[in-house]
């Protein structure tokens, strides 16, 4: 198989491989849960409720992405809309059914964490540490700035 040369393409292939495997584990466990739900679920496990804006800000996602994921989670029964301080405020909280599935999910998440550690150990350099270093580097100088420096002779 010929590997694409682009970094973004390789990262998308890696993400797809990881997400597909994790989604398959959820499906085999009889859970309608997606990898993209995980950070939102974790956030809502630690809070009574949160708005779309709070989720987006705390997780580092865009508001449209947070809205889309929260709506999918609500349709799947993982979360529900709960009253806010006023009628206009929409807050989300884990549903009672979701709270009841936490032990089962936690067991899967623990297995995923151990599998990620095994993957890291099999690589020449730990993937998690490399990703963290890349993100930190991009915080110091954006990829756009790096590209522009390469474009300008």
TrEMBL record:
SUPFAM superfamilies (alphabetical): Winged helix' DNA-binding domain
This protein's superkingdom? Bacteria
Q: What is this protein called?
A: MarR family protein
Q: Which organism is it from?
A: Sphingopyxis flava
Native organism taxonomy: Bacteria, Pseudomonadati, Pseudomonadota, Alphaproteobacteria, Sphingomonadales
